[in-house]
Amino acid sequence: MSQGDFPARRPQGAAFAIAAGLAAVAGVLLWDAAGLKQDGGYAGVGPADVPRLVAYGLLLLSGFTVIAGLRGELPQPPRQAPAPVLWILGGLGLQLVLLHPVGFVPASALLFAMTARGFGQKPLWRNIAVGLVLALAVYAVFDRLLKLNLPGGPLEQLIFQG
Amino acid sequence: MESFNLLLQGLATALQPMILLYALVGVTLGTAVGVLPGIGPALTVALLLPVTYGLDPAGSIIMFAGIYYGGMYGGSTTSILLNTPGESASIVTAIEGNRMARAGRAGPALATAAIGSFVAGLIATLLLAFLAPQVVKLALTLGPREYFALMVLAFVTVSATFGDSALRGLTSLFIGLALACVGIDGLSGAARLTFDVPQLMDGIETTTLAVALFALGEALAVAAMITPPDALHRVTGSVKMTASDWQRSWKAWLRGTFIGFPIGSMPAGGADVASFLSYAVEKKLAKHPEEFGHGAIEGVAGPEAANNAAAAGTLVPLLTLGLPTTATAAIMLAGFQQFGLQPGPLLFVMNAELVWGLIAALLVANVMLVVLNLPLIGLWIRLLTIPRPWLYAGIMVFATLGCIGLNPSPVELGMLILFGIMGYGLRLYGYPVAPVVVGLILGPMAEQQLRRALAIAQGDWTTLVSTPVAAILLLISALFLLVPIVLRFAGRGQVLSAVAGDSD
């Protein structure tokens, strides 16, 4: 990756956030390990031990990330455009919500349309039309032909008779 | 001679019409994804895992291997014409190849890449066939502690040795290891980190994680980028290589092959490392070193041969030890497991027909690939003209399709989205993605071997270094971890970061 390779020599907020996240994951691992019935058998090592080891590793890495952050060693990401990311995440969220109520084809058509919109393709209605055609083709091939079980809704039933 | 006979029998399997069809689909898809920037072989295999669930195991695995080989071929096309590597092992090809394209010599650059890939693929696959039975014999003498040491070595090389920061590589690896803890513990049956969510009992699906990190994370990162990509170079002039091109290429092909294969077959990084080393060697040996940086054909021929040879080499530890050393190999391992097959020494005994069919099919696939890539190159270039909005919108639909096909539950899709956001974050701050996937797949295997070794030794931790093989492997791991850190500290880290692979 070529972007963002000029380290900024000042404390970086992002590094502290990452370090906190790693420490939090380690905390969850340790908390879960504490609740496990420890039965090591002959090995003396039970189901809780490897998660603990991983947690210690994460804590160590979290500490080093803080140091790297203080010394400004994390690469500074280039400026990001937030709008496209929101379009794509919106599309994914809509698909998640709509998948079961309305079926695979409309939900995926919307995801397609909103991703294309995120990449700058307008107008949205045309993206939806293209998405519908693609999603129908995908449904026909994968659900009908390859027997993958994709959730169907009214539209799929109308076209493929169930 | 034994290998030779088995290979001939394998060829009989590989030449069955259905198997040929699977191989053809694999190499075609592989070339396509190699050509398209943004999706690599690892993602494609991950996407196809749920789709192939009901299909023939041998055919599906041959198809996956075809995708891996095809990706190595196709990646060079994008590197040469677009200066954006189609997959990570073609980064080096972009240096000289794109210069050649700018000088109007795109044709010979594409040709030397394709023929070099063919030569390397052929030799390396034959080496695989003759080396694998030897490694199997060796593997049968290894116990749990040796396997554990091997896995530690793979962890270190995948995460910390190359790339520009051991800290970030190891962080990625440990995120993968933490995710690997989720689910029912294979040895005791205890439910770990499931938070009473039934979907988490089976652990985190490799497909979901890989698709999220490679497809969603990549799409988000590309969408959020503000700079537009490079323009496409047209292929002008002849595709034919001149006599002097041939003369300069053939030695580079052979050198690339013999650099790539050993690197791929040791747990020491994947194809990207091999192609970089080959480039350095060609630069050193060149009669006209001043041409490097301005379109030297050796700089395309060597690395392209090396990355294909390394792809074949990766199959040695994967098939004989069950040890994946790249993200693509890790996902292929998941593919084997989906069909109830466990790669490793026993696979050569229990499923000899499948293994030798696979190796023979790779030889056939190699021939298919050179046909697909030389005369039909114009077709693949047309793929590069698909507008990016449609391309990525399509990738998103297929990415979610793989996840929905696997398990049409909102929980699975929700995890996909969460991991996708994580993948975007990883890319943003320069954390490598491959170690997360390798950690998820190799983590439980390493844990199992560790606990088995300790059970045999009744809890004595010194058992881990009590045989020479295990001790030496752990020592090498420690060196691979520490030497790069020292090198970076001494300000000599550029070499290592230049080898940084980013997805495959």
From TrEMBL, chain A:
Q: Read off the InterPro entries from this record.
A: DUF1468 (IPR009936)
Q: Where is the DUF1468 domain?
A: 17-151
State a single Pfam family of this protein. TctB
User: Which ranges does the record mark as transmembrane?
Assistant: 12-33, 53-72, 84-104, 124-142
Give the record's keywords alphabetically.
Membrane, Transmembrane, Transmembrane helix
For this entry, the protein name equals Tripartite tricarboxylate transporter TctB family protein
Automatic annotation (TrEMBL), chain B:
Q: Which InterPro entries match?
A: DUF112_TM
Transmembrane domains' residue ranges: 61-82, 109-132, 147-167, 174-195, 207-226, 315-334, 354-377, 389-407, 413-442, 463-487
Q: Which residues form the DUF112 domain?
A: 20-437
Q: Cross-referenced Pfam families, in alphabetical order?
A: TctA
Q: Which domain of life is it from?
A: Bacteria
Alphabetically list the UniProt keywords: Membrane, Transmembrane, Transmembrane helix
Keyword hit for Cell membrane: no
Quote the PANTHER family the UniProt record gives.
TRICARBOXYLIC TRANSPORT PROTEIN (PTHR35342:SF5)
Protein name, UniProt field: Tripartite tricarboxylate transporter permease
Native species: Tabrizicola oligotrophica
